[in-house]
Amino acid sequence: MQKIHTQKQQYYQHLRGKNPWILALAVVGLLGGGLLIASFLQSNNTSQLLCGGAWGARSTENATALQLEAILHYATARVVPQQSLAEISVSFEILRSLGPSNFLVFGLGHDSLMWTALNARGKTLFLEEDPVWVQTVLKDAPTLRTDTVRYRTRLSEANELLRHYSSEPDCSAKNSFIRGNDKCRLALNMLSDEVYDTEWDLIMVDAPRGYFAAAPGRMAAIYSAAVMARNRKKSGVTHVFVHDVDRKVEKIYAKQFLCKKQLVKAVGRLWHFEIPPAANADSDFC
Ligand SMILES: C[S@@+](CC[C@H](N)C(=O)[O-])C[C@H]1O[C@@H](n2cnc3c(N)ncnc32)[C@H](O)[C@@H]1O
């Protein structure tokens, strides 16, 4: 051990004494490399480079570049995600166990770059109600994939919508579909084909806003997440997470459509459900 150490010292002395220019070259190289990476991450072309095409899987290099971008972002961010570490860890654990996944997130926020980086080799799509907020978030994180959604509900209608659900045949679990479902007001019938055509492995309901009467509320997001999960054709369950379950509407709708018996974890204000594909078309939500 001592011998190796002495040999190392001699080597560095050799570099310093006889070839100082090698050391200078190494320092310049390191600084240059760092600057190159920083300018690469900040360039406008990063988004194209990282996305690997419309919905193509990212290469290992691009996934790493995205994760570096996230590290830089959160290392210098003044605002952090709203979910606690314990809450974030619930979906992180699932992402880790599944590997690259299809991850649908309701709501764009300070957590968006984090979710995308945690699923760097998968597909992460955000559904956001507020087009102005989309532009604000994309300015700092242009690599995020977002769709803007115009909801047809208001939080103040939450009770009435439950009655509508009971009386409208197109809302029933037996008929459950959301694409082109104009009669059931809980069905998100305005999403892109990309959303309908993807089998989502994880769905995070952390939006739209549901804390004032005129806000869209999360009723349709929870109902539509349940329908998408029940219609899954791939093997395995759909992991559905609902945040803010300390609120009445989130709690009632999650119990109604995602079901207490499918609730596998409750951490802080987050509930985690595992929804199997509907065994038969006649089965009810719960
Ligand atoms: C509960 S927030 C989601 C917050 C997100 N999970 C986070 O950690 O930042 C739900 C919605 O609030 C809105 N929102 C969140 N932060 C905002 C901000 N700073 N300014 C304007 N709207 C915001 C967006 O419409 C978003 O979809």
Number of domains: 2
CATH topology name of the largest domain, in short, is Rossmann fold
Strand content: 5-15%
Strand order of the largest sheet: 3-2-1-4-5-7-6
Bound molecules: S-adenosylmethionine
Radius of gyration: 24 Å
Stretches where pLDDT falls below 50 for ≥5 residues? 1-8, 11-54
* CATH class term of the largest domain: Alpha Beta
Share in helix: 40-55%
Structural class: alpha/beta
Shape estimate: globular
Taken in chain order, the helices and strands follow as HHHHHEHEHEHHEHEHEE
Mean pLDDT: 85
The major beta sheet can be summarized as: 7 strands, mixed
Total strands: the figure is 7
Number of distinct helices: 11
CATH architecture of the largest domain: 3-Layer(aba) Sandwich
N→C terminal distance = 66 Å
If you had to describe this structure to a student in words, what would you say it looks like?
There is one protein chain. The chain is α/β, with parallel strands linked by helices and 286 residues long. It has two domains: 2-40; 82-275, Rossmann fold (3-Layer(aba) Sandwich). It has helices spanning 2-18, 20-42, 46-51, 60-76, 85-98, 112-118, 131-140, 158-167, 193-197, 219-230, 248-258, and strands spanning 102-106, 123-128, 146-148, 202-205, 238-243, 263-267, 270-275. Helix 1 packs across helix 2 and helix 4 (60-76) packs antiparallel against helix 6 (112-118). The chain is globular. The N and C termini lie far apart (66 Å). Residues 81-82, 107-111, 128-130, 133, 206-209 line the site of S-adenosylmethionine (SAM). Keywords: Membrane, Methyltransferase, Transferase, Transmembrane, Transmembrane helix. It is an enzyme of class 2 (transferase). It comes from Handroanthus impetiginosus. The chain crosses the membrane at residues 21-41.
